[in-house]
């Protein structure tokens, strides 16, 4: 009888722990999906604005918005930023200096820095 009670208590504890872990995992996935959407939205706005000198602002803004969602959003922002910069530096021919500057803006946004630090004068206020 005691063994049965102990097993039941252990089962309840394990189920409660697993449920909490599943909730956290689910939240991470939701944050990551939302962060990917934030990154896409910043990219779309950058293309739509087509404003010279605004790319660092949009890098910082996308990472900032994604990271505010939580660990999953920050993870998605880092993965997307690193992949984009890796591809861009090998294909675009802009060079390492541009990639370093983009990564600085990415990290600034992910750390919670104000994206307006990179906002160029004259960029329409809707962005």
Automatic annotation (TrEMBL):
Similarity comment: Belongs to the SAA family.
Role this protein plays: Major acute phase reactant. Apolipoprotein of the HDL complex.
PROSITE patterns, alphabetized: SAA
Annotated stretches, region: Disordered: 84-127
Record-level GO BP terms: acute-phase response
Organism: Calyptomena viridis
Protein name, as recorded: Serum amyloid A protein
GO terms for cellular component: high-density lipoprotein particle
One matching Pfam family: SAA
Keywords: Acute phase, HDL, Signal
Classification via InterPro entries: Serum_amyloid_A, Synovial_Prolif_Regulator
